[in-house]
Amino acid sequence: MRAKDAVGRYGEKVAARHLEERGWRLLDRNWRGTGGELDLVALDGDVLVAVEVKTRSGDRFGHPAEAVTAAKLRRLRRLTGEWLERHGRAWGRGFREVRVDVVAVTLPRAGAARVEHLEGVL
Fold it and tell me: In whole angstroms, how far apart are CA 69 and each of 1, 32, 44, 64?
């Protein structure tokens, strides 16, 4: 596995733990749809949240959330709709709201990962 891929996988584990510690229920990880992937799909109470995770091993290339472009947000919205079409009924109820969040994970050289959760980016 390439170092970049390992950093991304680790960041997704950190983000999933962050959400679970907040009491969220994870419904899906690395769900592949037509032309893309949703990193995490979770329930925040009765709100369905598609979570994009961006991880960096430092800040020399900017903040991790800066990598979430307008084109990426359009793709996330389309993929979230596709996930709902395929899986929404399986949960036996509607969702009060659907939103997209970004969890930015920065891995410093020493110490714990820094996690920033940006809610409702779309």
Answer: 26, 19, 24, 11
